[in-house]
Amino acid sequence: MNKAHRDPIAKTGVLRAAGAMSGTSLDGVDVAVIDTDGHDIMGFGTSGYREYSGEERKVIAAGFGKWSGPEVQAATQVIEAAHLEVLQDFTDVDVIGFHGQTLAHAPRVQGTLQVGDGAGLADALATPVVWDFRSADVELGGEGAPLAPFFHHACARYAGLSGPVAFLNLGGVGNLTWVDPSINRPEAEGALLAFDTGPANAPINDLMQSRLGLTYDMGGKIASKGTVETGALELFLAEPYFARMPPKSLDRNDFAEMVALVGELSDSDAAATLTAMCAAGVAEAMAHCPRVPDRVLVTGGGRHNPILMKMLAVSLDCPVVPIEDIGLDGDMLEAQAFAYLAVRVARGLPTSCHSTTGVRAAVGGGTVSLPKQEKSAPEQRAF
Ligand SMILES: Nc1ncnc2c1ncn2[C@@H]1O[C@H](COP(=O)(O)OP(=O)(O)OP(=O)(O)O)[C@@H](O)[C@H]1O
Ligand SMILES: CC(=O)N[C@H]1[C@@H]2OC[C@@H](O2)[C@@H](O)[C@@H]1O[C@H](C)C(=O)O
Questions:
Q1: 110: helix, coil or strand?
Q2: Residues contacting residue 375 through CB under 8 Å, at least 6 positions apart
Q3: Is residue 350 lining ligand 1, measured as CB closer than 6 Å?
Q4: At residue 159, what are phi and psi to the nearest 5 degrees?
Q5: Cα dist. 235→183, 240, 257, 275 in Å?
Q6: pLDDT by residue (tens digit) across 187-204?
Q7: pLDDT reported for residue 257
Q8: Which of 69, 158, 184, 222 is deepest in the core (most CB within 10 A)?
Q9: Which helix (H) or strand (E) holds 118?
Q10: pTM of the prediction?
Q11: Considering only CA atoms, which residue is closest to atom 8 of ligand 2?
């Protein structure tokens, strides 16, 4: 193998990158390929998905909120094995962006923990891997999240948009990026504002799991039969997080106590109320934006929930549409984001700035691990 060819730092021009993301709702690992020079998106490639089994999901979930110990080790093993499996089909790229799995996130207290060893993955796949995207930002005083905003900026430019838009990712947690695509550099003043909006699907999934043994409320079917309990919703909105100025970010279970507010409700009323809480958190978030965007482009699994989409449409002052409206793939956007960010790291470009994470100065997070040379074929290698 020609090492110079495989070294993303040495190679010039456009790079082909694969991004791998395992999000907070623990459905599985998404992988997606993009071509980029680190600023513009030149095109999108293939994608893949590796679902977690029920047992794997339990092992990873047992690590949530923990910083070390046997649960973290067990979760790490599952994450590494699942990524190695799905990434075997994506080694024909210049670089892999490996997010890992967030187990704990408390940027101002203990830091942020994404498990999975990117250096080991680089060796096992004989492909350069960029990983540990969030630590440098946290060390420089940032929230370490959200990190997709620089990619959202590139997406808005790729789609040829000129007026301000908001990207709304509804995964386990919700996060919003307000983008002004007329400003060419994402780190320039006024180009971006980003932060987490509140809990999104995670509490709904937890309710479905604990009460009905379901992984999620497919199509919002259960919520559609319920009534929103306004008292619980008001208590939820009284939580100081919503009035706090950005930057701000959340851990998956930060709102667990609020979610207990629906404990006495019927399954359908509880589902409807948790769904309304997600939409209400987004409505609160819009008040922090510099101005009302032309439209809200929804990405992540929440856009498949028509009840949630309807609640958003009635509570926001602009059209709310799935991101497919601008020709992008809302199931793969986060994986694509970490492919894009990997190339930015390889190119020495920043991946976050004051208006996205609160970091003091624009920073390029991420560690580049090149594979050791003299490899056997990837499929014969143990991780
Ligand atoms: N058809 C559907 N109906 C209702 N909800 C759905 C549907 N499809 C997906 N979801 C919800 O979306 C979730 C998955 O969303 P997504 O893949 O964006 O999350 P994630 O990437 O793990 O999270 P995060 O962005 O917080 O890291 C599912 O767990 C489920 O709650
Ligand atoms: C610490 C962490 O992993 N945060 C995730 C999580 O999931 C959604 C939201 O909370 C967002 O802040 C972030 O993920 C996306 C991919 C981001 O960094 O942009």
A1: coil
A2: 1, 123, 126, 381
A3: no
A4: -80, 0
A5: 39, 11, 11, 15
A6: 999 999 999 999 999 999
A7: 79
A8: 222
A9: helix 118-125
A10: 0.96
A11: 173
Cα 368–chain centre separation: 20
Which residues, at least 6 apart from 116, have a Cβ–Cβ distance to it below 8 Å?
A: 76, 79, 80, 83, 98, 100, 101, 131
What ipTM was assigned to the predicted interfaces of this complex? Answer: 0.98
Helix-, strand-, coil-residue percentages of the chain, each rounded to 5:
40, 20, 40
Q: Which two tokens stand for residue 372?
A: 């050791």
Instruction: Name the average pLDDT for the chain.
Output: 94
Strand partners, 99: none
The amino acid present at 66, given as its one-letter code, is: K
Low-confidence ranges of the chain (pLDDT < 70): 1-5, 373-383
Location of structure tokens 């790229």: 93
pLDDT of 172: 95
Is the distance from the beta carbon of residue 203 to the nearest atom of ligand 1 less than 6 Å?
no
Q: What are the DSSP E strand ranges found in 188-245?
A: 192-199
Distance CA 327, CA 305 (A): 19
DSSP state letter for 327:
T
Ligand 1 atom 8 nearest Cα: 301
Task: For each of the domains in the chain, give its residue range(s) and CATH number, in order of start.
Answer: 3-138+367-380 (3.30.420.40), 160-326 (3.30.420.40)
Which single residue is written with the structure tokens 């082909």? 16
Ligand 1 touching residue 301 (CB < 6 A): yes
Residue reference for tokens 């009534």: 227
Chain-centre distance for alpha carbon 125: 24
Tokens of 212: 């009905």
CB 128 within 8 A of CB 94: yes
The residue count of the chain comes to: 383
